[in-house]
Design a protein that fits this description.
globular, 6-stranded parallel beta sheet, 551 residues, alpha/beta
């Protein structure tokens, strides 16, 4: 018996063997053995949040930044159900996470069905792996499997349930060491087909999607663009993979269709679609007469009526791009000058909008102000709302993972916790959460967590006193304005009640000053910024499409 240990101690040892640094969460009584074991760890820090959703969004953002599995914790029943949105967020968004939940004793219980749900069955459809631990001896293999699957392409969510009686039993098992697994390389003949199609193309376009948002892929794509001189478009979740100040950047496909960058794609005779993920709205629509499409990804394409690529290069994306680059013919200059005119037209359209300094603040002007205030490596974390489209279109991303937005589950409430995690990971970089008033209030209680953790960050609230995205859609569909407005607290006093610093914007010039002050002053800052969304429908749904159609 001298070699045995409590199963919860073994669980923590397994997490330490996986390199876990943080566990985010809200523990309950069913987690107390686990919590006691965690308190004895010198490696793993518990980050107590005010809601399980906030914990999950932080864990997912940890996974997005590092590529390592973010871990978060909740109790059974309501704690587990509160996790669901964050689990779906990481699963659809390709962010590796492990959710750990407690459970009543499974061998002998005297509490009937109190708080008991079949949590594993509930998690199954929204995770890559969900498992109830039936014995302490199984912990090492199940933890290793959960981490392996969470980090394997496409990354996503996993779940382990640790019942009370399993957590306290004795075991002599030991952790299983992390394995080394390399993704397979693309098949040579498929690469050759892609190279031949590229060399024959006169107007090729590169589309960079969510799956390309990997460090090595970013490097390889940069080399590929320079050699082949191919113009490129990004999806919302592909922003920043390549510096968008590049002269061959054509724009971000933030709208579903009809934008200037869509006209460039429609003009192409070859589209190289890298890291395409069906969770994002398609950046282009195929038909029988459209350009040849080369699908470069870790997995084969899911064929549907608007996407049926003719050539597929499947394997590690960075390696596939390197192989295509090595085989492709070097071009002295871009053959696609007329495609670059679409980008020039977009820039010309945006400039006067960005200069409009009305108050309340006009969204394109707001985006320009935020970009001007943030350093090159600054990180903005967007919640979900109509402003996300403005930032995706108009905010120039310089580096990977400096514009964190969710175009997969597209959930409200993630912006603040995502920024908190970014500020924890990168304390020397400037971090800003950008939230609508609706999204902010869904997890605003995490302001207390941010202050308690001593983070340096800014929370920019775009206040229109309504669910603006849905209101925009409502207007676009010709419905009357109904059911989407509300009141708000005094956000300055609200921030101060948590020990944060509150600021209220009163003009465009004041916004410039406030952004600079909050950037350069330590602590948690909240900015209440009124916005004018009155022209959203006209500009995004009509003006842009009409102007681009004339090109």
């Amino acid at each position: 018996m001298t070699n045995t240990k409590k199963a919860s101690d073994l669980f923590i040892e397994c997490l330490e063997a996986e390199g876990v640094e943080y566990i985010f969460g809200v523990p309950g009584e069913e987690n107390l053995d686990f919590l006691e074991s965690l308190s004895n760890s010198d490696q793993i820090k518990l980050v107590l949040t005010r809601h399980e959703q906030g914990a999950g969004f932080m864990a997912a953002t940890y996974g997005r930044h590092t590529g390592k599995t973010g871990v978060f914790l909740a109790t059974l029943g309501p704690g587990a159900t509160n996790m669901v949105t964050a689990i779906a967020y990481s699963q659809l968004g390709g962010m590796p996470t492990l959710a750990i939940t407690g459970q009543k004793p499974i061998k002998k219980s005297k509490q009937g069905r109190f708080q008991i749900l079949d949590v594993v069955d509930m998690m199954g459809p929204i995770t890559k792996y969900a498992y109830q631990l039936h014995a302490g001896d199984n912990i090492p293999s199940r933890v290793r499997e959960a981490f392996r699957l969470a980090e394997e392409e496409k990354p996503g969510a996993t779940h382990l349930e640790l019942p009370e009686d399993i957590a306290e039993e004795q075991t002599d098992s030991v952790p299983i060491a992390r394995s080394v697994a390399r993704r397979p390389s693309a098949e040579v003949k498929a690469v050759r087909m892609a190279v031949e199609a590229l060399d024959a193309a006169q107007r090729p376009v590169l589309v960079i999607g969510a799956g390309a948002n990997r460090k090595m892929t970013s490097n390889m794509l940069g080399e590929f663009i320079e050699k082949v001189q191919i113009p490129f478009v990004t999806t919302q979740m592909g922003k920043g993979v390549i510096d968008e100040r590049h002269p061959l950047f054509l724009g971000c496909a933030a709208l579903s269709a009809g934008d200037f960058c869509h006209r460039a794609i429609e003009d192409a005779d070859l589209i190289i679609n890298v890291g395409h993920d069906v969770i994002e709205k398609p950046p282009f629509f195929m038909n029988d007469s459209s350009a040849t499409v080369i699908h470069v990804s870790t997995k084969t394409a899911e064929v549907d009526p608007v996407y049926f690529p003719q050539i597929e290069v499947i394997g590690d994306i960075a390696n596939a791009i390197w192989q295509i680059k090595e085989g492709a013919t070097m071009r002295d200059g871009c053959l696609c000058d007329r495609m670059l005119k679409y980008r020039a037209a977009e820039v010309a359209h945006s400039k006067p909008l960005e200069a409009d300094n009305r108050f309340p603040i006009f969204p394109p002007h707001l985006v320009r102000q935020v970009r001007d205030s943030m350093p090159n490596d600054g990180i903005i974390c967007l919640d979900n709302g109509v402003y996300k489209i403005w930032f995706a279109r108009n905010y120039t991303a310089y580096l990977p993972n400096t514009v964190l937005l969710d175009n997969a589950l597209a959930t409200m409430g993630a912006g603040l916790p995502s920024a908190m995690m970014s500020a924890m990971l990168y304390p020397d970089r400037k971090v800003m959460a950008i939230c609508g008033d609706g999204g902010f209030m869904m997890n605003s209680q995490e302001m207390e967590t941010a202050v308690r953790l001593g983070l340096n960050m800014t929370v920019l609230i775009l206040r229109d006193d309504a669910y603006g995205m849905i209101r925009w859609k409502q207007a676009n569909m010709g419905f009357k304005d109904y059911g989407l407005t509300y009141g708000n607290p005094d956000f300055v006093k609200y921030a101060e009640s948590y020990g944060a610093h509150g600021h209220r914007v009163t003009s465009s010039e004041h916004l410039t000053d406030v952004l600079a002050h909050t950037r350069d002053t330590p602590g948690v800052h909240l900015i209440d910024c009124p916005v004018d969304y009155s022209e959203n429908d006209h500009i995004l749904n009509h003006e842009i499409k009409e102007l681009s159609a004339k090109l």
